[in-house]
Design a protein that fits this description.
With about 425 residues, this protein is of the alpha+beta class. The chain has 13 helices and 19 strands. About 40% of the residues lie in helices and about 20% in strands. About 40% of the residues are buried.
Length: about 425
C-alpha cells in the first residue's frame, strides 16, 4: 500500500503510475486526498478538544483548592460537554479513516521508471536470451505424452482424486520432482538464503500484508470454516515472518528461502496453454525472499536474477528474461523480471520464475520498519521464484528426450540417483 504522505506529495505521478498499470479509477486518488483532508481537519479538532480537556482538568483542581466549588462544578459540566463532542468526533474520524483506507488499498504500487509502457504480455521487453534451442526428432512428444509413456505423472488419477490441475507424480517422476526441490533449496543455501519451512495456510492479515487481499482476480482458495487461505506462493508466509517488526539495520539484508505447495484457482484458464503441467491449481515452488535497505534493493534484485540464471544454466535449459510492462505487473510490484524456458516439443516459451521488487508497498502494509540509530524507515521487500517446478519439469523431460529415454541433467543426478528415465 502506498503511504498517504507519498500520495499527497505526488498526486500526478501516482495517477500516471496507476494508469501505466492499467488502473482505470484514477479519480479515486482525488477522493483519497479529499478524505485525508477531512480526516486531518477532524484530527485537529480532536487534538484541540484534548488540549481543552487538559486545561479544564487543571483548572478544576485549582478551583477546588481555592474553595470555589460552584465554579469547579461548572467547569466539570463543561468537561462532560467536551467529552461528548470528542466522542462524536472520534466516531466521525474513524469512519472517514476506514473509507480512506478502503480506497488506498485499491491503488496499485508505483511502477519503477524502467518499466516499459504496455497493457499486455505482448508488450513485455525481452532483455536477454541464453542457450541453444534443442533439435528434437520429428516424432518428439510433449511432456504429457512422455509422462504417460514413462509412468511419471498420472493426470487422470489426479482428476479422480481432486479435479483437473492436480497431477499425481509417480515413480521416477516423483523422484525427479523431489530432486528439483532439493537442488533448488541447496543452491539457495549456498547463495546465503536461510531455509524456512512455512505453513501453507495464511490468515487474512498475512494475505493482506503481502497484497494478495483484496483478491481482485479470485485466485485464492478460501477455507470458510477457519477463515484461512491456502497460500498462492510461499512469499506470503515467508514475508509475514517479519510483520509488525522493527529490524535492526545491522541485521540487513535478510535472505530466506522456502519450499511449499502453492494453490491457485486460475479462474478462467483454458485451452492448449493449460494442458499437462502448463497451468496447475496445486504445484511446488521454491521461493527466495529478501528484506533490504531502500538504497540496496535494486542491487539485491539483480542478485536474485543472477541466482535464477545460475539455476537454469546448471539445468542446461534455454531461457530468456523479460522485463514486464506496466499492464503485466502485479498489483504490488514496482519492477518484475520473468524467466521463461523454451519447451521444444510444444514450441513455446513457459514462464518458470518471477523476481520482483515491491519497494515499500508491502512493508507499509506489514508495518515492517528498519531502525538505524535514531532513524526508522520502511524496508524494501523482494521475492523471486527459484524456481516453480511444473514447467521446469515439462521443459526438462521434453528437451532431454532421446530415442533411449529422457536424459537427466548432470546437476540433478546426485539427487535423482539415476541419469536416464527409460
Amino acid at each position: 500500500m502506498l503511504e498517504i504522505k507519498f500520495v499527497r506529495e505526488n498526486v500526478e505521478a501516482v495517477k500516471a503510475g496507476a494508469l501505466k498499470k492499467g488502473f482505470k479509477n484514477v479519480e479515486s486518488i482525488d477522493e483519497i486526498i479529499n478524505l485525508d483532508d477531512e480526516r486531518r481537519s477532524i484530527q485537529k479538532q480532536l487534538d484541540d478538544s484534548l488540549a481543552e480537556m487538559n486545561v479544564l482538568s487543571k483548572t478544576i483542581g485549582e478551583l477546588f483548592k481555592e474553595g470555589k466549588a460552584q465554579e469547579a462544578n461548572e467547569a466539570k459540566a463543561k468537561t462532560a460537554d467536551v467529552k461528548e463532542r470528542s466522542a462524536g468526533l472520534k466516531v466521525e474520524h474513524d469512519n472517514i479513516a476506514e473509507k480512506l483506507n478502503d480506497l488506498l488499498v485499491q491503488i496499485p504500487n508505483m511502477p519503477h521508471e524502467s518499466v516499459p509502457n504496455g497493457l499486455a504480455e505482448t508488450d513485455n521487453e525481452i532483455i536477454k536470451e541464453v542457450g541453444v534451442m534443442p533439435q528434437l526428432a520429428a516424432d518428439a512428444k510433449p511432456h504429457w505424452d512422455l509422462a504417460e509413456k514413462y509412468h511419471l505423472i498420472d493426470f487422470e488419477k489426479g482428476v479422480k482424486i481432486a479435479g483437473a490441475g492436480f497431477p499425481v507424480y509417480m515413480g521416477k517422476g516423483a523422484r525427479l520432482q523431489r530432486a528439483l526441490i532439493a537442488f533448488f533449496l541447496d543452491e539457495a543455501g549456498k547463495a546465503g538464503y536461510t531455509e524456512v519451512q512455512p505453513p501453507v495456510l495464511a490468515n487474512k492479515d498475512s494475505a493482506y500484508a503481502t497484497g494478495q487481499l483484496p483478491d481482485k482476480e479470485g485466485q485464492m482458495y478460501y477455507v470458510t470454516a477457519d477463515d484461512l487461505y491456502l497460500i498462492p506462493t510461499s512469499e506470503v508466509p515467508l514475508t509475514n515472518l517479519y510483520r509488525s517488526q522493527v529490524v535492526a539495520a545491522a541485521d540487513l539484508p535478510i535472505s530466506i528461502t522456502g519450499h511449499s505447495q502453492c494453490f491457485r484457482r486460475e479462474a478462467g484458464s483454458y485451452g492448449k496453454e493449460v494442458r499437462g503441467l502448463n497451468r496447475l491449481h496445486q504445484f511446488d515452488k521454491v521461493e527466495i525472499v529478501r528484506i533490504e535497505r531502500p538504497e540496496n534493493s535494486y542491487n539485491a534484485l539483480k542478485g536474485m536474477l543472477d541466482h535464477v540464471e545460475g539455476l537454469l544454466d546448471k539445468l542446461g535449459l534455454p531461457y530468456r528474461i523479460l522485463r514486464l510492462c506496466g499492464g503485466d505487473l502485479t498489483f504490488a510490484s514496482a519492477l518484475t523480471y520473468d524467466f521463461e524456458v523454451y519447451s521444444a516439443a510444444q514450441k513455446m516459451w513457459l514462464e518458470v520464475s518471477s523476481c520482483s521488487n515491491f519497494e515499500t508497498f508491502q512493508s507499509n502494509r506489514l508495518k515492517l520498519r528498519v531502525k538505524d540509530g535514531k532513524d526508522k524507515f520502511l524496508a524494501h521487500t523482494l521475492n523471486g521464484s527459484a524456481i516453480a517446478l511444473p514447467r521446469i519439469m515439462a521443459s526438462l523431460i521434453e528437451n532431454n528426450q532421446t530415442e533411449n529415454g529422457i536424459r537427466i541433467p548432470e546437476a540433478l543426478i546426485p539427487y535423482t540417483g539415476f541419469d536416464l528415465i527409460s
